[in-house]
Structure formats: C-alpha cells, structure tokens
Specification:
Blueprint: E1 8-12, H1 17-28, E2 32-37, H2 47-54, E3 58-61, E4 73-76, H3 85-92, E5 97-99, H4 100-108, E6 112-117, H5 122-135, E7 141-143, H6 149-152, E8 160-161, E9 167-171, E10 186-189, H7 199-212, E11 216-220, E12 239-240, E13 247-252, E14 257-261, E15 264-268, H8 273-288, H9 293-300, E16 311-316, E17 319-324, H10 329-338, E18 346-351, H11 355-360, H12 362-372, E19 378-381, H13 397-405, E20 410-413, H14 420-424, E21 433-438, H15 444-454
Parallel strand pairs: 1-2, 1-4, 2-3, 4-5, 6-9, 6-10, 7-9, 10-11, 17-21, 18-19, 18-21, 19-20
Antiparallel strand pairs: 7-8, 11-12, 13-14, 14-15, 16-17
Helix pairs in contact: 5-8, 5-9, 8-9, 10-12, 12-13
Length: 456
C-alpha cells in the first residue's frame, strides 16, 4: 500500500502500544486518525485515550460507531479476529482492512529506516537511538514499542515522535513473522531466542530480514544465534559494524551501569548487562548517522529509560520495587539477574500472558527461572492473563510453579494478586528487591502502584 493514497485511518485496538505509536505518527504527518479499543468506554477515559485525544485523535468504544463511509482504511493487529464487530462493519462498507505491520512497512517506504530486530531489547535499543540523536541535535522520527519516560513527562504516550528528518527508527517484530516485510537502510539483529516460534523458523525469518537490509547490518556477536549473521564473524565480542564496536568491562552499582565501548567510558542510569548490549547497538547505529562515540556517551548519561522496563517505582520501608515488562523466558531470566543486588534478597512476581504462548514455553520458563534464581530468592506467580478472543485454557500458572518446585526453588502461586503485598510484607528486610513482571495486561502499571501503596 501507499500511505499517500489514504487520508482517513481508523485503528481497531488503538490503545495497544504498537497501534497507538503508528496512529500518532500518521497524525503527525497530517493524516486524519481515529480508533477504538476494548478498554475504552463512554463513562471514563483511560490515560492512553486522553493522551490520544490531546494529539487530535478521536477515540470510540469498540462497537462500530467510529467507522463510517468516510473512513478510507481500517487498521488491525493480528489480535483482532475477523468476527470483531468493527472488522465486520468495515467489510460490509467495502473499506480496505490492513494489518498494522503492512501499514508500518508502507510508512518505512517513505523514509530512510533503521529497523531494530531481535526477540529482546527492541524497545530499549530503538529508544536509545532516538534519545542519542535528539540529544546530539540530529532528531529523527520514532515509532517504538514503549514510551520514553523523558517524553512521557511532557504528557504524551512517548512511543512515537514525528520529525522532518529523512530518518525513522522502528521496532521490527518477529513474533508474527512481519519482520520479513521491512527493507531498512540499517538493520539491527540483537538476539534470537525461542519466543512464539521455534528457533528454526525464527532463524529463517531473521535471515530474510538480513537479506532485505539495504546498507548496513548491525549484529550482536555476543549472542550465539546472531553471530553467524555478522559480516565479520571473527570479532570475538560485542556488536559488529564495519570496524566493530566492542562493549567491555561491565559493572553495575545499584541502579547505574558502567562499561566501555571501544575505549570510551559509558555511565547509564539502568541495570543489567543486557542494557550494555542494547547501548552498544544504539551507539553503533548513531555513529553510522554521524554521531561520535564520545557524543553518544554524553547523551546516554541523561537517558531515563522507557515505560515498564526495569522502572524503579518506589522504596517502601527499605524494599525497592521495580516494574518490568519481561515476559518470555530469556527476558525474565535477564530481568531477574539484573535485580540480584549483592546482599539483597529478590522477590519476583510474574504474571504470564496468553495460554497458548505459556504452554508453548512452559519448559523454557521453568529452566530459565530455576537457573536464574539464587538459593534465597522467591518466585511468585498469578494466573495467566487472558486478553479475550478464542482460546483454549488448558494450562495454569500454577503448573509452572509446581514444575519449578521440583528443583527445590522457593516458588508460590497466588491466585489473587492483590494479596501479594500483605503476604510478603513480613518476609522482606531493608535493602531487598521486589520485581513485578508481566506484559500485555494494561492494568499492570496500576497494580505496581497498588503494591507500592499497600506496602507503605
């Protein structure tokens, strides 16, 4: 499709992060944009709905009222089923229906695109690229998967910025196979781990992405499955592009990480070695766009992170509370390890999402969690989040807990998550960490604030 052929866009499920980002971008280039979401109702407006309205994007309940003969195109994600009332109305009115990924691919045809791929780290790396370029006086457009906290402070969702630059940075998703649709100027491959699809299928998808990349390919050689994609596989560590960008000497002190990239020291207010790797990819990309490593180092000192990615939300009676998006086995293990501060006990609460994904990854979850947790750490789980639609509920989060217990790990199932603060309140000591993790559920941020309040 050609986005220049359409002026009026309607998004079914506009409240989703990926959908709202594209909607805001289109509004920023002068399109008429509206949309609906199952979370929207006529009585109260969600925070996302309010912020979309401030951008001039009309929002509706998901009942069909927002679609009319003047609507030129309807956008859906793979989560929207064909029996959806608005999908059916669009078909009835002969309005074209396109996938979010096809629309994003069409947008990338109008810009020089940087496509960030990988099963982990896409949101952070793309946000870092935007932040570095903006701080260095070379702002680029941005369509991301999570809001930058620095942008959210201006009362925006923070996951999309439209500029006049020729360059655009996007997240390129592999979970639905849409990664093969993008043909970027610069492509990044951060990592490849089992998530939604088997590894063999994932590697085939990433190979097509590599072949589609027009100019430069940035590959994380620290990851066993991505290293073969490098154009210079003899490099031992770090991210490789042209002469190589090597990240070394990692240190973490509280919520601060230090490391070197090609001899230049970096200090970023984040946690986790995975964020050193994300930063190296971002720096390599920005250097390709004319930024020096030294300039990138200075810019990242002020990087505040993105929404629900190891976000420190409070300190209650000496217990540090961290909210994170981690949801696949490798991400969860990395999140756990990043929060294992010396001398502190770690309490992890995890809410899996999707019955089919949880069943598919059951053994991987168990293995990664067992290997990541220390002897005294604890893992707590509440029931799998159900987002609606047709699904077979043939697995429970408690099944994972029972599997984990077989390895003599401190594992507990708690059906009612609101009971968590009261139960753990008597267990922690000053300096311990509570990590709250999960994805897709729009109430998770509110739950984190609930926990913070209840532990007061």
């Amino acid at each position: 499709m050609d986005i220049n052929n359409y002026q009026s866009y309607f998004f079914i499920g506009i409240g989703g992060t990926g959908m709202s980002a594209i909607a805001q971008y289109l509004k920023g280039i002068g399109k008429s944009v509206s949309g609906s979401d199952r979370q929207f109702n006529s009585k109260t407006k969600t925070e996302t709905e309010q912020k979309l309205n401030k951008e001039g994007i009309l929002t509706f309940e998901q009942n069909g009222e927002g679609i009319d003969p003047q609507t030129e195109i309807v956008v859906v994600s793979t989560a929207v089923e064909e029996n959806n009332v608005e999908y059916l109305k669009a078909v009835q009115l002969n309005i074209p229906v396109v996938l979010r990924s096809d629309l994003l691919a069409a947008i990338t045809q109008t810009k020089k695109t940087i496509a960030v791929s990988g099963t982990s780290g896409k949101s952070t790396t793309s946000a870092m690229i935007y932040h570095i370029m903006e701080k260095c006086g070379k702002p680029i457009s941005f369509i991301g998967g999570a809001g930058l906290i620095s942008i959210q402070k201006t009362d925006k969702i923070g996951n999309s910025i439209t500029t006049t630059s020729d360059w655009l940075v996007i997240e390129a998703d592999e979970s639905d196979g849409s990664l093969v649709k993008y043909k970027p100027e610069i492509g990044l491959i951060l990592n490849i781990d089992k998530d939604h699809k088997e590894l063999e299928e994932l590697e085939s998808i990433f190979k097509t992405f590599k072949d589609n990349t027009k100019s430069k390919l940035i590959v994380n050689q620290a990851h066993i499955r991505t290293k073969p994609f490098s154009q210079n596989p003899d490099n031992d560590f770090g991210y490789q592009m042209q002469c190589g960008f090597n990240a070394t000497d990692f240190e973490q002190t509280s919520f601060q990480i230090k490391f070197n990239i090609n001899g230049v020291e970096f200090e970023i207010p984040l946690i986790g070695q995975h964020n050193m790797e994300n930063a190296a990819a971002a720096v390599a990309t920005c250097c390709e766009l004319g930024v020096s490593i030294q300039e990138a180092s200075k810019a990242l000192q002020s990087y505040e992170g993105i929404y629900r990615r190891h976000q420190l939300i409070g300190n209650q009676n000496g217990l540090l509370i961290v909210d994170d998006y981690a949801h696949n086995p490798v991400k969860l293990a990395a999140s756990i390890k990043a929060c294992q501060f010396k001398g502190s006990k770690l309490f992890v609460w995890f809410q899996p999402h999707g019955f089919q994904p949880t069943k598919f990854l059951r053994n991987d979850f168990v293995e990664e969690i067992v290997n990541a947790l220390r002897t005294d750490d604890e893992i707590w789980m509440s029931e799998i989040f159900y987002a609606g639609g047709t699904v077979t509920k043939d697995i429970s989060a408690n099944d994972l807990i029972l599997d984990i217990k077989q390895s003599h790990v401190n594992a507990f199932f708690i059906m009612n998550r609101e009971q968590l603060p009261e139960i753990i309140k008597s267990k922690f000591k000053k300096g311990d960490i509570l990590l709250l993790t999960g994805a897709r559920d729009p109430s998770l941020a509110d739950f984190a604030q609930f926990v913070l309040k209840e532990l007061n």
